[in-house]
Amino acid sequence: MAPAASTVSRLVVIIILINVGAISDTTIFAIASAAGLLSSPKLLEREALLATGWWVNNWATGNYTSYHCKWTGVSCNSAGSVIGVSLLWYENDNITGELGRFKFSCFPNLKSFKIHSNYLLSGSIPSEIAAVSMLQTLELPSSSLTGIIPLEMGRLRNLVHLDLSDNYLSGYIPPTLGRLSKLEILNLSSNDLY
């Protein structure tokens, strides 16, 4: 079978599985990536944004359904790679479910990630967040995050601002945060940390 025909065959199988509801968005994303259907880093970022379910309507995407750099709360560099996600309390009505739906490893150039005052955002902080080595700002205040602060956050060597206040985080403050030599602002208040 020719390479183009093989790709089309894999795409047809994925579409059939989607239509019968046999696979989740995350599985679709993983299969499409493995099949080489998401070859462009920019396309990979776009698909990762869509997989969160947070950019699903015209309010969030506007008339730019295929160009994620124009979506509400998304900023990109001149090459079209995502460098910021900023959804403040009045912009985040679509953000429900777990924080782990955002695949941090798909965003190598991400410098800022801010979701404020969203009590519908739940789950734990994924250890995968350490894959975003360029991250300078992480703000997730006033949400419903639970669990521990992952030790892996100590690998975010460029982090300057960390705000995880007013959540339901528990356990100890990881000593690995002491490795964050560039950290200037740290707010962990209103959690159950020791």
Question: In words, what does this structure look like?
Answer:
This is Leucine-rich repeat-containing N-terminal plant-type domain-containing protein. Its main location: membrane. It holds the Pfam family LRR_8. The protein is of the alpha/beta class. It has a single domain, classed as Leucine-rich repeat, LRR (right-handed beta-alpha superhelix). Helices cover 22% and strands 21% of the residues. The chain has four helices and eleven strands, in the order ααααβββββββββββ. A six-stranded mixed β-sheet has the order 1-2-4-6-8-10, with no helix packed on it. It has a five-stranded parallel β-sheet with strand order 3-5-7-9-11, with no helix packed on it. Strand 1 and strand 2 form a beta hairpin. Helix 2 packs antiparallel against helix 3. The longest helix has 17 residues. The radius of gyration is 18 Å and the shape is globular. The termini are far apart. The mean pLDDT is 82.
Q: Indicate the radius of gyration in whole angstroms.
A: 18 Å
Give the number of domains. 1
- Strand arrangement within the widest β-sheet reads 1-2-4-6-8-10
The rough form would be described as: globular
Low-confidence runs: none
Q: How do the SSEs run, as a string of H and E?
A: HHHHEEEEEEEEEEE
CATH architecture: Alpha-Beta Horseshoe
Main sheet properties: 6 strands, mixed
Q: Averaging pLDDT over every residue, what do you get?
A: 82
The CATH superfamily is: Ribonuclease Inhibitor
